[in-house]
Amino acid sequence: MTHILLCELAAFALYFVYGSYFEWFFHRYLFHSPKYIYRTFREHTLVHHQIYKGDETYHTHDDHPAKVPMDWWALPAMVGFHLPLFLLVQHFTKIPSLWGGVAAISIYYTCYETFHWAMHVPKASAFLSRFRYYRFLDAHHRVHHKFMLSNLNVLFPLADLTLGTLRGADGRRIVLFPKLRADRSKEIEKAKHAKKPAHTVKSP
Ligand SMILES: [Zn+2]
Ligand SMILES: [Zn+2]
After folding, report:
1. Ligand 1 centroid to residue 103 C-alpha, Å
2. Taxonomically, which superkingdom (predicted)?
3. Cβ distance 152 to 167 under 8 Å?
4. What local confidence, expressed as pLDDT, does residue 8 receive?
């Protein structure tokens, strides 16, 4: 029994980390690109981001603000979408992990929705604002409303940090391993110059 519980807890932690990357890809490609599902792009980029910008419009003082939460069926849809993956992983690894996965996705999504609502509706954030992590996330999301393709995580910005889309509260880019990146850019520049054909000297 203890073994099963420990496996499910470990699965919960791993799937929660995965949630950061799922959130990132979902936000980047379904919310901020019209190529895949136009409706989610329209509702998010053309409506949510147009109502709530990175200035004083970031907060609404309406008790029932429009276009902040996702559709009511988004949570069952997310869990349903992931169920085959969780079942396959459990089947092939023989490690009890299904319920850890379901709990991770459900809790990740519920926290995402609660936090995002509180970020745009200050009246709803009285309790959460006591926590430093929430205040950090609030500033992080405000920057997303200024720079749409940065700070794509609302809840757990691990994917922003590792995929190069993180900006601080002042809007400056935060780069993981800046020295490695600078060296890599130099190598790319060198390779580009090396590929250029040598100048040919025209004969008179
Ligand atoms: Zn928002
Ligand atoms: Zn967005």
Report:
1. 24
2. Bacteria
3. no
4. 96
Residue 49 alpha carbon to ligand 1 centre in Å: 7
Distance 153 CA to ligand 2 centre (A): 9
88 CA → ligand 2 middle, Å: 31
Residues 148-166 have a mean pLDDT of 96
| pLDDT of 188 | 80
Residue in 188, 183, 165, 190 with CA at minimum distance from that of residue 175: 165
What is the full DSSP assignment across 132-148?
HHHHHHHHHHHHHTTST
- Cβ contact 146:54 at 8 Å: yes
Count other C-beta atoms under 10 Å from residue 10's C-beta: 14
For the chain, the domains span 2-195
Segment 159-182, tens digit of pLDDT:
999 999 999 999 999 988 777 777
Point out which residues pair with 167 in neighbouring strands: 173
Tell me how far the alpha carbon of residue 52 lies from the centroid of ligand 1, in angstroms.
Answer: 7
